[in-house]
Write a structure and sequence with these properties.
The chain folds into five domains: 10-120, PriA, 3(prime) DNA-binding domain (GIY-YIG endonuclease, 3-Layer(aba) Sandwich), CATH 3.40.1440.60; 128-198, no CATH class; 217-410, Rossmann fold (3-Layer(aba) Sandwich); 421-464 and 520-656, P-loop containing nucleotide triphosphate hydrolases (Rossmann fold, 3-Layer(aba) Sandwich), CATH 3.40.50; 667-755, Ribosomal protein S10 (Alpha-Beta Plaits, 2-Layer Sandwich), CATH 3.30.70.600. Helix content is 33%, strand content 24%. β14, α14 and β15 (384-389) form a beta-alpha-beta unit. The two termini are 36 Å apart. The structure holds adenosine-5'-diphosphate and zinc ion.
Amino acid sequence: MPAADLSPPAATAAGVLRVAVDCPLRSLLDYLPPAGVRALDLPAGARVRVPMGGRSAVGVIVAHADGSLLAPQRLRRIGALLDPEPLFDAALLELLRWTASYYQHPPGEVYAAALPTALRAGQAATAQESWLVLTDAGRAAHAAGEPKRAPRQRALAALLAAHSEGLAAAQLYAAQPDWRSSARALAKRGWTELQLRDAPPVAAMSAADTTAGGASAIGAAAAAIDVIPDLSAAQTAAVAAVDACAGRFGSFLLQGATGSGKTEVYLRLVLRTLERGAGALVLVPEIGLTPQLLERFRSRLRVPIAVLHSALSDGERLQAWRAVRAGAARVVIGTRSAIFAPVQRLGLIVVDEEHDSSYKQQEGGCRYSARDLAVLRAQQSGLPVLLGSATPALESLHNVQLGRYRQLLLPRRADQAAAPRIALIDLRAHAVHAGLATPVTQAIARHLGSDGQVLVYLNRRGYAPTLLCTSCGWIAPCTECDARLTVHRGAAQLRCHYCGAAQPLPTRCGRCGFEVRPVGQGTERIAETLAAMFPTAPLARLDRDTVHSAADMEAVMHSLLDGSARILVGTQMVTKGHHFPGVSLVAVINADQGLFSADFRAAERLAQTIVQVAGRAGRGTRAGEVLIQTEYPEHPLLQNLINNGYEGFAAGALAEREAARWPPFARLALLRASGRSATTALDFLREARECATAAPPARLLGPVPASMARRAGRHHAQLLIETSGRGELHRFLEQWLPLIERLPAARRVRWALDVDPLDLQ
Ligand code: ADP
Ligand code: ZN
C-alpha cells in the first residue's frame, strides 16, 4: 500500500472538491475551489471546468472533503463552475457512485455516460435562446429618429423600443423575417445587443416529441382501436399491489404471456403516479421501442413524454434530457441508458421485457445492467419498481423465490384466443426440402388456405451460412476472424458477421477453381424458397439486412397488419413486442443452436426465444399453432418446455444452475483481453491470475481463448472469476484490479472487466 494512504490528509482551509473527470482513471480527482470561494459553496452534482494535465476538462463535483491525500502544492484549482444548480440530485449521485464501484469502472466515465454529449463538452444544461435588446445608446438614437436612412433598421429599433425586456429570436422572425441583417447593422453602432437566456423547457419538449416517433400511420391506427379496457381481476390486483407501495421501495415481477395485458398495467400505474404529481421512468429493450408502443403511451397519458434511445442525434438527446431535467417531461420512455435520466420527483420505474439482454451493456464502456440498476435506484430512492416479462430471467424468478420480488401473475385474458398448440417436428423423421420439413410446408399451405398469416423464425440472416466447394471441400473463410463467411445473394457478397468484412461473391473455388455452392439456410434463402413454393402469398422479411430504420420496420408491420403480406420471415427482430393479430402459424426453423452451447445461459435464451416467438401466434381470435423443427425432439429442455411451459422449464433450469453453482447461485466476473498475437492476451491473463493467488475465496477459471478466438484480426481470451456472493466478488475485485493495472503485460493488450456477464462465449 502506498505510504501516502497512511499519512493524515492535508487539511485545507477552504476545503477540497472531489471531482469525477471523464478519463480512464479509477479514482476521483481532488481540486481546490477557485480563489476566494469555499468548497462548500460549490454544490455536489454540478459540473466544473478543471485543469487536467495540459488541457482543460469537464467534470462533475461528487463530494466535498476537508483535505486531500495529494500534497498541497500539487492540488490545482477548479477553473469555473458550469452549473449554478446541480445536474444530479443526491439520489442520482449515489446511483452513479454505486455503479462505478460495483462494475469497477472509472467513475469519470460513468458520470459522463449519464450525460448527453453536449453536456459532457460543457454546454449549458438549460435550453437557451437568443434575445435582442436595445442598448441605452440605441434607445436614445431611436428617440432621435435614427438611423434616418435605414427604414428597416428603424422599424426593428421601434419594435424593440416597445418591448423593454427585448424580444426572442422567434418573435423577431415572426415580426420581421429579415431582422438579422438589420440587427447586425444596429449592433455595429452599439445600439442593440444579443443576449442568451434560458428558454422555457416546454418549447424544447415539443421538438423532442416530434422527432421521437411522432404520429405515424400505424400509431394512429393503433390509437384509434385502443379503447380503454376494463381491467381484469388479475390486472386490478397487480395495479393495486404496486400502487399500495407508492412512496416506498418494493420490487414486483409482473409475469404474463404476450397479450395478457402487462402494458395496460404499466399505463394505469404511470397514470396514478402522474396524478400524485410524481414522474415515471419506463425502460424498454433496444428494439422494443416501436411507434406502436409510443403512440399508445402518448394517446393514453396525454402529457409530454421524453423518449431516450440510442438512435437520437446529440441535439435531440440534449433537448429531451433538458426537458426531463426541467420537469417539463415527467414521463421518460427509454432504452438502457435512460436509467440515469434525471426524472423529477421520480415515483415509479417500469422495466418491460426485463429478461432482454439489451439491458446489459455488452461492449465498451461501463458494462452495467439497467435492469439491476433499476431495482437499485428504486431502493435508494424509496419507490416501487415493476419488472415485466412473459419469460422472466432465471435471476428474477430466483428473487421471487427468495422473497425479494413479489410475483404478480396475469393469466391469459378471457377475450383472448386460447394458448397456441406447440409441437416438435423431428428433422430426422421427415423429408426436408431447403430447410423445411414436409409437415411444416403442409401446415403453411393449410394456414394460408384458411386466411391465416405465417411467421417463420430463423436466427440467421443472409442467404446461407457457408459457401462450399463441391470438389475440394474448401469453405470460404474470413481472413480476420475464425469464422466462415456468410453468403448474401441479393447483394452478391460474402460477408463476415463478426467483423463486417465483405467481398464479391465468387462463382469458383478460391483453391481449386471448381464450382462453389451455398450450404445451409439463412432468412434470405428461406424467403426465396417460400416465395417459390407459395407464389400467391406476398412475403415480407424482417432482419438487419432488410430493415434499417424505424420507418422500414413500420412498413413491414404495416404490411402484416393490413394483410398485404401473408408470410413474415425474420430473425430475433420478430420476437420483440409486435402485435400481429392475423398470425396463426409460427414455424421455428432450427431450435438446435441453443441446445448444446458451452454458455450456461444458452438454454434460458432458447426457451425465452421459443416462448416469445410462439406468443406472436393467435393473438387475434383464432388459436395459434407453433411448430419447432429440431433434430433432438427428445432433448429434456425441449420436452420440459413443451409439456410444462416456461414455468416448468425455469424450475428445471434453476435446479441445474444450483447443482452446477452457476448464477444466481454464484457471482461471476469475466476479465476479457485481446491482443495482436495468439499469446499476448493469454499471457496477460495468466499474469493477472498469478497476482490473485493470495485472494481466495474467489475461484478463477482459465484463462482460455474465447470461443471465437480471432475476431477482426485480434486474438481474444478470457478469465472467469467466481465467488459465492456479491460482497466477496466486490472485495476481491477491489484488491485485484489495481494489481493487474500495474502489470507490464496490461499495456500490450486491451482488457475489460465484465461484472455479472451475460455472454460467456
Ligand atoms: P402485453 O403488454 O402483456 O403484451 P397489452 O397490455 O399490450 O399486453 O394487451 C394486449 C391487448 O389487449 C391490447 O390491445 C390491450 O389494449 C388489450 N387489453 C389489455 N387489457 C385488457 C382488458 N382488461 N380487457 C380487454 N382488452 C385488454
Ligand atoms: Zn471477420
